[in-house]
Amino acid sequence: MYALQNENLRLEVSARGAEIQSLVDRNSGREIIWQGDAAYWNGRSPILFPITGGLWDGTCRLDGRSYQIPKHGFVRRREWQLVEQGADFLHLAVENTDEELQQFPWPYRLEVVYTLRGRSLRADFRVVNRSLHSSMWFQVGAHPALNLPDWTDHGQHVAGFLRFEGTPRDMLRAGRQGCVEPGRVAIPWSKNLQTLAALAFHQMGNALVPIEVSTFANEALIFDARQVEAVEVLDRKRRRFARVASSAPVWLVWQPTGLH
Length: 260
Known about the structure:
This protein is an all-beta fold. Helix content is 0%, strand content 34%. The strands form 6 sheets. Strands 7-8-9-10 form a 4-stranded antiparallel sheet, with no helix packed on it. A 4-stranded antiparallel sheet has the order 13-12-15-16, with no helix packed on it. Strands 1-2-3 form a 3-stranded antiparallel sheet, with no helix packed on it. The radius of gyration is 19 Å and the shape is globular. It starts with a strand and ends in a 6-residue tail after the last strand.
């Protein structure tokens, strides 16, 4: 286990998967990262590569060959190597094995650098195609789970709210085998607050999505085309608990289907 801390935050990262295991606010003592529970989801913050999500029948086809790639890829189960660690950063890396070339036909190197800056944690990814002969098709993603301050296992109440930064207009929806369905769907804005019809895009920051079972009836809220730049997570009293920002072109906010 690797550890970093500054005056505000304490971070723990495992060598397996380079996965964040804990992020504690040292001022309040509050754990920010979900601590894993098999009754709901036993992950914490896995790194996804060379795909994010799943493939139809788990199969990728390239140049007449089929490759079986597991959901979210395979680096989350690998042991990563330490490249460098400083007072405020941790640099880890993993490279392909010969066996993985039977699942994903490009030799690769994937690196992550975690950096503590004040009250923020930053994660930077670097993907290297080690093939000399062809361009590499890949996806890379982060899957952080947050430990909601007002969460209970009763599933009867709103556990908090999401506030989206950017210009969210509509969503995609996961369907069979977890693959995206054709067509677009409306964003489930809170019925007790401003509705999408009443908002201009410059007022979007006032619209909230409730964190409740019905919001995730189709498991995930999927925003493509760079509609979202960041998401704030608010508690029941609409106080900010955490903010996640990324330059990723696609965002997915997820909760296990039917679980709260």
